Amino acid sequence: MKKIILAIDGMTCSACSNGLEKYLNKQEGVSAASVNLVMANALIEYDEKILDQAKIEKFVEEAGFKSLGLFTDEKLETKKKNQKVKFIIFTVLAVILLYVSMGHMVGLPTLDIINMHTNPINYTIVLLLLTLAFLVYGFDIIKNGYKNLIHGTPNMDTLVGIGVISSILYSLYGTYMIVKGNHMYVENLYFESAAIVIYFIKLGRYIDGISKDKTKDAIKNLVKITPNHATLLVDGKEKRVTLDEIKKGDVVVCKPGEKIAVDGEIISGKAHLDETFITGESKPTNKTVGEKVIAGSINYDGYIEYKAERIGKESTISEIVKLVVEATNTKAPIAKIADRVSGYFVPIVIIIAVVTFIVYLLLGNDMAVSISTFVTILVVACPCSLGLATPLAIVVSEGLCAKNGILVKKSETLENARKVNTIIFDKTGTLTYGTLKISEILNYKNEDRLLQLVGSIEAKSAHPISKAFIDYLDENKIEKLEVQEFNDISGYGIIGKVENEEFILGNSKILQKYEILNNHLEDEERLAQNGNSIIYVVKNKEIIALIGVNDIIRDNVEEVIQELKNNKIETIMLTGDNEKTAKKIAETLKIEEVIANVLPSEKANVVKKLKKENKYVMMCGDGINDSPALANADIGVSVNSGTDIAMDSSDVILTKNNLYCIIKLIKISKRTVRNIKQNLFWAFFYNSLMIPIAIGFLKPFGIAINPMIASLAMVFSSITVILNALRLSSTKVINSKK
User: What is the pTM of this model?
Assistant: First the structure.
C-alpha cells in the first residue's frame, strides 16, 4: 500500500469533503481515503499495483473537484490570484445592483431611464446584465453543485445552484412577459436575489479563506525555518546552491549568523547552535566534530563543515510538517458524526424545499412567492458552519500542539487525550535523562576549580562516567585544562597532572591501592543509597572531594506528577531496572505504584491488563523496549530523544523532551472537544432556527426572510463558528514550565 496527499480545489463545505471521501473510498484499489476541508487536501492510501496518481486524480475530477497535484510544503501558501481584485469589483457591482433594484424603496433618487415604473424594459435589462456578470463570477458554484448532484453526493453548492437557477429561470419568464407588454411582472423579478446570494456566498468563502490561512501558521512557520540557499565545499572551493541541489554526502559550510541547511554531522569546526524550535532548549548548544546538526538551527559563533545526511523529505523539519499535515487528515470520532449528519442534511433540505414549494402552490400562493420561499430554504440551510465546526477546530489545535512541541499523529488522539485516567512512565530516558549527570558534589577543601580540574582529566578517559564531566564542561562553557602524565588504571580509576599537581580519580578500590585513608564513609554511604556512582578526588594522598554521578530526574517531573495527581490521573512507573533503584526514584517523585524488573513483552502485558480494567491508558517511553507497550496503549507518547522504533510506535512525539507537554496535550484536548461541541451546537441551532423561519411558520407574527437575507444569515453563521474555533489559537496553555 502507498500513501499520497493531493491538494484539492473546489471544496466548499463538509458535504463536499464528505462526498469526495465517499466517492474515493468506493473505488477499487483505494483502501482508505480521508478528505480535509480546511487544509483542502486528501490523504489516500491505495494499492499501487492497481492505481497510480493519474487514475486517482481522475476519480477526483469525476467527483466534481480538481486535483492540484501532490500537496507540498509550498502549497501551504494559499494562491489568491486576483481574488481580492475580483471581490472588490463585484462588491461595487452588488451595490449598483441593489441601488437599481431597491433604491426607490428607501427613498434614494433613481435615473428615469432605468426606473421600474416608467421604463420597465430598461430596468429589467440592466438587472439581467448585472446578474449575468454574477453568474459568471459564481459559475464554479453552479458547476460543482450540478456535478455533485449527478454523482449522488449533493452539497452546499447544489443547494445554492438549484436556488439561483430557479430564481433566474422564473425571472427570465418574467422578462419575456414584460417585453410582451405585461409590465405587472416587473414586481416579480428575482434577478437581484440570485446575484446577491452568489455575492454573499463568495463573501463567506473569502472570509473563510482568510480564516483558514490563519490556522496553518504553525505549519508555515515550520516550512520557513530552513534557509533557501546553502554553501557547499567542492574541491576546496565554496559554491552557493539551492537546497534542492544538495545531495547526501555533500560537505556543507555554515558560518556565524547562518542557518543549518540540512540534517547532518559535523566533520570540522565547532559552534554554538540555537535549536530552540526543535528541542525547546533556549540555551545554545555547543556542537563539535562528530555531533549531529538539525536543519534550521542558527549558528551563533563558529565556522563548521558538516556532511549532509538527511535531505528534502527525510529532514527532521519535513517529517514534522508531514506528521502535522497527516494528522489533520485523520478524522476524530466527533468529526465523523458531523460528516454523517451533513451527508444526510443536504438531501433532506432539498426534499423540504420541494415539499414547501408544492404546498405553497396548493394553498393558492402565486408562483413568485412559492419560488422565493423555495430558494430561501435552500440558501439558509447551506451547511457551511456545520462543515467547518469540527475540522477548523482540529486544525487550529494541531497548530497549537505543534507550537508547544507536541506532534500528534492522528486527530482522534487529540480528541481522546482528555479521557486518559492512567499514565505509565518508563523510568530511564523518560522520567530520567537516560545519561549520567553530576548529581552531587562534596568539596571538602573548597577547591575553586574542582570540576574544571576533574573534567579536564576525565576528558582523557573512555569510561562512560567521563561523559558526565565532559557534558558539564561543554554546557557551562568551561575550558579544558592541559593534562600531563595521564594514566588509566583499569578497574580502579585514572591519574593525571594539571599544572604540575597530581590528582587521583576513581572508586573505593583506588583508595586501597594507594593506601589512602577514607574518613568520609558516612557521606559515601549516603551517596550510594541515593543510587550514585562515586568518584573520589585525591590530592597529596588526601581525599579533597566526593562527586556523585547518577542518571538524574528530568526537569519539572515532580511538578508534572503532582499536577497529574491533582487532576485525578493515576501514575505508574514501569521499568526493567531493579526494584531498589526504581523505588528510590518513585519516592522522590511521589509515584505510588512501581512495577520493576519487567521485560519488554511484560511491559505490553501490563498495559493490556490495565485496559481490561476499563482504564484509558497513556504510555510514555523512549526506547526499543518500550515500543510494544507504546503500541498497545490507548495513547503512546514518545520523547524525541527516543529511538526511531519507539517514535514509530507512538501516537504523540514530544519534540521538546519536556513531560509537562503531556499536561498541555490533555488541556488542549479538553478545550478542543469543548470548542467543537460549541461549534456544532451553534451550527445545528442556526439551521434548526432558520429553516422554520424560511418555510414561513413565523409569518403570522410578522417574521419572514427572503433569499438575500438568508444568504447574509448563512455568512454570519459561518463567521460565528470560525471566530469560535480561532479562539483556540490564543488558549493560554503555556502558563507553563517550558
Answer: 0.59
